[in-house]
Structure formats: structure tokens, C-alpha cells
Amino acid sequence: MLCQRAELGPERDLRQGPAKRCQARRPENPHHLEKEEEMEGKMRYVVLAIAVVFMIAGCAKPPTQELDTATASIKDVAAAGAEKYAPEDLKKLNDQVAAANDEIKSQEGKYFKNYDKAKEMLAKVKTDADALKPTLAAKKEEAKKNATAAQEAAKAAVDDAKKLLAKAPVGKESRADIEAMKADVKGLEDGLTEVQSLVTSEDYRTATDKAKAISDKAAGVSGQVKQAMEKVAAAKKGKAKK
Fold first, then answer.
1. Are 7 and 13 in contact (CB under 8 A)?
2. pLDDT digit string (tens) for 214-229?
3. Which partner from 11, 41, 72, 174 sits 20 to 30 angstroms from 138, CA to CA?
């Protein structure tokens, strides 16, 4: 019917074929329009999402506050005695902060910055520092015991060396050596005074190292004296056989 009515229309409609006039007047599919609008809406959301991602990535800021907090926690635990009684643990904390700084620097050169890993590393530094602080009292007591034991061992080693030197035979050939060893022992006694000063100042680790060094040197002197005494005894036996 529509096509028949079109044939009765104006002259411009008469110049068209019936099929074309029907096709030109056929309404568009509403479902097709809905799909196009839906696709356009999805594309707008995608573009908006991409823009938001770029904006967030470009605006990501370094974890300055987390870094300050981690650094402050290390200073706090160091002031509580970690430098003296837990130097290895303190070094680990400083190494962790250095690694976090490297991670931050690596992100600064990227367009899509992500500081989550650096934040996790800095959070662990604070957690470890907070966990270390309560243990320092026990570590201090242990260091004190070690220093005291090393100090006593050093005194005993020096006393043994002095006793052996007192028994050492003094001859023309050994006199200079004996005098040199006596000077060494005197230096070790002065070292023991220094060890006591370190213990008094609660620098137990340094005191322990110093005391152990004195013990080793005193044992060396004792060994030299014993060798000298053995040589003299062997020489006397040789003369007696003749």
C-alpha cells in the first residue's frame, strides 16, 4: 500500500522506482540504534578509564613520609644502644633503607610510577627496628659478660707470661730477647688498663676485641720464653754428656 501511494505522489517520486521509494521510506531498526549507543557509551568509559590511569600514574608521589618514619625508627634504636650491642642488626636496617631508596629512584625514571614495593620495604624497616629495641637490654648484658670473661682471660695470660719471664734464664745471648719480651708484657699490662676503661664506658664489644688481642700476644710471649728455656736446658744436657 505504501508503495502504491508513493506512485501517486509528486513528480520526483514518480521518477524513482517503486522499490527505491519503499526502501527510502523504510524506518531504521531500533535495536541497531541501541547497540550503537551502547558501544559509544562503552568507548567513552574506556577512554575515561585510560585517562584516569594516566593521570594517577603521572601523579604518584615518592613515599617521603614512610622514608622519614623508617629513618627515625633506625635513629631511635641506634640511640637505645644498637650501635654497641647489636651492630649487625643495625647494619641490616640501614641496608634495607638503602635498598628502598634504590627502589624509589628506579621508579622516578618511569612514566607509570609505582611505589608500593618501596612502601612495603620501608614498613618492614620500621617493624624490624621496633622489634629490635626491646631486645637491646638482653644483648647489652650478654656483651658485658663476654667482655668480662675476655678481660679475665687476658689478665691470666699476661700473668702467666710474667711468671715465665721471671724464671727465664738470662745469658749473654738471651739477655736482649728477655728484655724485649719484658717490654712487650709491660705494653700488654697497659692494654689491660685500656680494656678496663672500655668496660667502664660500656663499650663491651671493643673491650672484648682488645682483651682477646692481649691474650693472643701474651700467649706468644709465653711461647717464646718456653722455647728459650728448652734451648738452655738442651744446651746444659749436651755439656753434661761431654
1. yes
2. 999 999 999 988 887 7
3. 72
